[in-house]
Each structure stands twice: as C-alpha cells, then as structure tokens.
Amino acid sequence: MTKENKFPGWKKLVFLLGGASFFTDAASQMVYPLLPDLITALGAGAFALGMIEGLSEGLSFALRAITGNLSDRLGQRKWFLVTGYLLSGIAKPLLFFAGSWGSVLGLRLTDRVGKAVRTPSRDALLATATPIGQRGWAFGVHQAMDRSGSLLGPLLAMLILWLYHQDVKMVFLWTAVPAAVTLFITLRVKEPEMPVAPRTGKNWWRSFPQSPVIRRMLFWLTVFNLGHVTETFLVLKVRGQGLGIAWVPLLWVFAYGIAALTATFVGKLSDKIGRKNLLRVIFGLFATVSVALAFSQEVWQMWVLFPLLGGITSWADTLIKASLADHMPAGERASIFGWYDALRGIAIFFAAGLGGFLWENQGSVFAFILPVAAGTAVALGWGRIPAKTLAHSEE
Fold first, then answer.
1. Distance of CA 277 to the CA centre of its chain
2. Predicted confidence (pLDDT) per residue in 163-178, tens digit
3. Which of 5, 114, 128, 147: disulfide with 84, CB 3.0–4.6 Å?
4. Sign, CA torsion 382/385/391/392
5. pTM of the predicted model, to two decimals?
6. Residues of the chain with pLDDT under 70
7. Helices (H), ranges, the chain
C-alpha cells in the first residue's frame, strides 16, 4: 500500500470528523427552521429571506473551488477545518444580537463561508487518511453522523423554545454549546502527511482537474445535480395533498433517520462489491422514486416516498465522494472536491429555477421531469466510468 494509507489513527479521525459534522449540523438545524420567524420579527419578509439564503448558499458553493485549491497548494487540511468551524460557530450565536435583516445576512454569509472553507479539506482528509478498501465505510459513517445531527437539531430547538417560553433568539444563543464542542473536536484532529499539489504555482481557476476520468465523473455528477429535488417543492407537494403543516417536520425526521441508519451499511457494501454498479442502481432508484413522486396523489404515499428519497440522496452522496476519492491524484483531492461542490451548486441553482418555472406553468408533474431525466441519464452514462481506479494502481 502507499504511504498515505498507512495512517495509524484513521478510524479515530473518521469519528472525530463525523463528530464535528454531527454537532455542527445539529446547530444548523436548530437555526435554519427559525430564520423566517427572525426575519419577520425584524420587519422584513420573503424577499429578504430569499436574498439571505440565495446569496449565502451560492457563495458557499462557489468558494469551495478556491478554498480546496488553496488547501492543496499549501499542503494543509487541519487549519482549514478549524477556521471553517470557528467561523460558523461564531456566526450562529451572534444571531441572538441581530437587529436588522442586513445583520442576519452578514452572519449567514459568515456561517456559509465557514462551510466553504472547511468542506473540501474535510473530504480530502477523509480520502487521504482512509485505506482504499474502507473509503465507502468511512464516508458512510460520516454521512450517518451528519444526518444524525440534522435529526437532533430541530428536537433541541423545540426543547429550548419550550424552556424559554417560545423565545426564538434563545435557540440561537444556545448554538454556542455545540460550536464549542465542535472546536474542541477539530483541535484534536491529527492529519497524515500529504503531498503538495503539483500545480502549486497555478491559480484556482487553472486548477480544474486534468484527468479525463475525473472530468467525465464531474460531468455526469453535474447532470445528476440538475435533477435536484428542492425541499420547497416537496413541501408544496405534500401540503397540496392535504398534510397538515404540523406534520411536515416529521417527514424530515423520517428522512434523516433513514439516512442515518443506512448510510454506513451502503458505504460498507460498496467496499465489498464495488461502487460503480451500486451507484448506477442508486441513480436508477432516484429516477424511479421521482416518477412515483410526480404521480403520487395520496398523503400516505408521501410518507413512503419522501423518506425514501432522503435515504437515496444520502446513499448517493456517500458513494459519490468515495468514488471521486478512488480516482483522485493524492495532491489534488481538496481541489477536486471543491470543484465538485461548486459545479453542484450551479446545477442546483438551475434545477430550482427551472423546476419552479415548470411547476407554475405546466403543473407539479412536469417539475419532476428533471430528476427523472437526470437520474436515468446518469444511471446509463455512469457505466462508461472505468472501474479500475488510480488509487488501486498506486497500491
């Protein structure tokens, strides 16, 4: 095996990074559902909320190509993690003091910049430290812990609201606790030695992967993300079928629960039987469930399809990252993960806009044409990705 796969503390590292995501996602899901109430209380409305979320998420995805390239060029991972989690950890509690929607925008931008700083380095660190035959398990464990945090966050918010008599701002203040735990965890991370990217002197916009295999993978993954089903559409769908608003959060609980319970198993299965064909099956399942969602008319169908879609997207995310890691040159991992996220953000933006246009002008059934077409196309196109990986040739 290569030197990079002899890192003795790799299992501890997997759980440390998973723990950091667990507590950070718990804090994020404490905040996210309450932002509309905060914006309303500050005298703003839907336009302000759209601006805040659109700008913050767009910036977060776009910056990852830059931060990933910088991580590779410097040969550094840990301090990108610490900086990213610190920025997010500071921003959320400060929402307690927000006095205008402009200040909320600034803090949300800080939070999402923190995510952009840490995410490519975190994924690259997982890929570098984990033995080749365990990458599916490692990314599965991380996905499971991440989703578990997403499951816990709304429950903690409900508890705090009950304790403080529906004082929304107290929820924001309490996010300082998981933020402190996350910072403690990331400071304990020890990273393996890693090579500096061979394109050290080049700027980020020249860092797009040169490998034909990686380029092909990024193309098909961008197509897949053009079929992204936005949460807003799913809520509109289920509400239109008569489900009461009080029951909607429970759908998310089931979706996160399925993802948390199954991601590790799916990742480990990919280590045993291979990721290529398993991913093709998952892409096909995504298209199939999207068809069922398009034509579903009963509430009980959403109780099955909505959580299943949550599980499928979680499985895809786990295996996509492990598959990319299998093909990556060691010194370019953060750059490639960063480009994947940046392209993903662009695709999701167009998917949301086109899906909304189709929904309003043609009806809800037509809004699901994109995910059906994307899932089907990628299930077929992914078959052209070579099964033999660069990583295996380095063993």
1. 22
2. 998 888 999 999 999 9
3. 114
4. positive
5. 0.88
6. 1-6, 46, 194-205, 230-233, 235-236, 239, 244-246, 248, 387-395
7. 10-31, 35-41, 46-74, 78-94, 101-129, 135-163, 168-174, 176-187, 212-225, 231-240, 248-273, 276-295, 299-327, 333-362, 364-367, 369-381, 390-393
